[in-house]
């Protein structure tokens, strides 16, 4: 399956992106099928080859959500933007009252104090 993706380029903290068509499962640093344009998010400049992008969309290449929103902003796609959010981390902490924790540790401490010390016999 073909996908339209952003490919990161540039130096550290000076990212720029190429808009490429590639296989869905291929690595971004590897080979790609076609180059559709570029994006510089710092200066907010971009260039998209509209005819190529429309052709690949008609052929069946599916854009990633970020690319889809970029194509909507560029005026190539007329669909609504897709909300792109990072998934929140799951934090499932069970709230245990402090009293139950103290009660559980108290018998262990008492048992350790009551037991006679062990001696190693050789």
From TrEMBL:
Region described as Disordered: spans on this chain: 83-122
Biased composition (Low complexity): 106-122
Record keywords, A-Z: Ribonucleoprotein, Ribosomal protein
SUPFAM superfamilies per the UniProt record, alphabetical: Ribosomal protein S16
Sequence intervals crossing the membrane: none
UniProt GO molecular function: structural constituent of ribosome
NCBIfam families in the record: S16 (TIGR00002)
Family to which the UniProt record says this protein belongs: Belongs to the bacterial ribosomal protein bS16 family.
Protein name, as recorded: Small ribosomal subunit protein bS16
Gene (UniProt): rpsP
């Amino acid at each position: 399956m073909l996908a339209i993706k952003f490919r990161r380029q540039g130096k550290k903290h000076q990212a720029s992106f190429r808009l490429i068509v590639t296989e869905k499962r291929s690595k971004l640093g590897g080979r790609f099928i076609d180059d559709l344009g570029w994006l510089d998010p710092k200066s907010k400049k971009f260039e998209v080859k509209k005819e190529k992008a429309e052709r690949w969309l008609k052929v069946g290449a599916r854009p990633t959500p970020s690319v889809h929103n970029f194509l909507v902003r560029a005026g190539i796609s007329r669909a609504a933007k897709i909300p792109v959010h990072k998934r929140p981390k799951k934090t499932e902490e069970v709230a245990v009252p402090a009293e139950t924790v103290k009660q559980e540790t108290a018998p262990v401490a008492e048992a350790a104090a009551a037991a006679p010390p062990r001696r190693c016999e050789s």
